[in-house]
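Q: Here's a chain of 274 amino acids. Please give me its 3D structure as C-alpha cells.
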Amino acid sequence: MFKIGMFTSGYQRNNIEDMFTDARRFGYDYIELWGGRPHAYAPDLADGDIDEIIRLRDKHGVPITGFCPEHNAYPYNFMIGSERQREDAVRYLKVCLDQAKALGSDFMLISPAHAGYETTYAQMHDRLYRTVEDLAAYAKNIGVKLVVETLTPEESNCFKNADDLLDLFEHVDNDYLYGMMDIVVPFIQQEQMTSYFTLLGDKLYHLHIPDSNGVDATHLVPGEGVMPYKELLQEIRDLPYERTATIELVTNYLSEPRLYSRRSIDNVRAMLDE
C-alpha cells in the first residue's frame, strides 16, 4: 500500500505548526513541504528558520518525506531567460537540495516549466539536459533523490508527458534521478494515467493525487472532480504501487486548509476501503 502525504502550500496563511498538527490528527503518513514564504523558503531555512521546522517535525512525529521548493514560476524557472538566469536558478535549487537533506527528506521535486514561446525544441532540450544533469549529480553527492514532475500544457511547453521523462532518462543517466506523475497532467491531455507505471517502471518514484475538473490545471479535493478517481486509486493500490502519493491541494483552499485536508484524506481512505 502506498503512503499518503499532505502538501503544505494551502497552509501558507496559517501558523506553521497547524500543518504538522493536522497531518498528525488526520492520519497523513508524511508531509510534502512546500518551499515558499512564509514557512519554508530555502534561503530562509539556510539562514536558521530550519530549526523551527525540525522542532515541529520531531514534536509531532510527522516526517518531511518530500521537499517541493517554489521555482517553476517566479523567480526561478530554470527553463526560461538568459544563461546567467539559468545558472542562478541552479544555484538556488542546490540550496534547496541542501535544505531537503537537512530536513531529512527522501526526495526533492523539480518541474521544467514554460520555456518561452519562441524557444525551439532543440534549445529547450539542451537547457533541460544540462540543468538536470547538474542538479542530479549534486543530489546524488548529498544523498537526496531528485524527482522530476511533468506539467500541464498551460504550465509548460517542454515537459508534459511520460515520454518526456523517458527522453530525459535517456540523456541523463543517474540513479538518484526519478520521475513522478501528477494525475491531473495526463488526465486533461487524454493520456492514459496508468501508462506512467508501465512506461517508467521503477523510475516512477512519486505521485500527486488531486482530483481534476477535466479542463485545466486546477487541483480539487479527491472525489469532487470528474476523474474516475476511486477506480484509479484502487488500480494504483492493486498494481501494487508502494511508494508515496501526496494529496496536492494548492491555492483553491487557502481559506480553510484544515477542513479540506481532513475531507481529502477521509475521501481517499474511504475509496481505498471499498
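Q: Can you summarize the key feature?
A: The first helix runs from residue 16 to 26.
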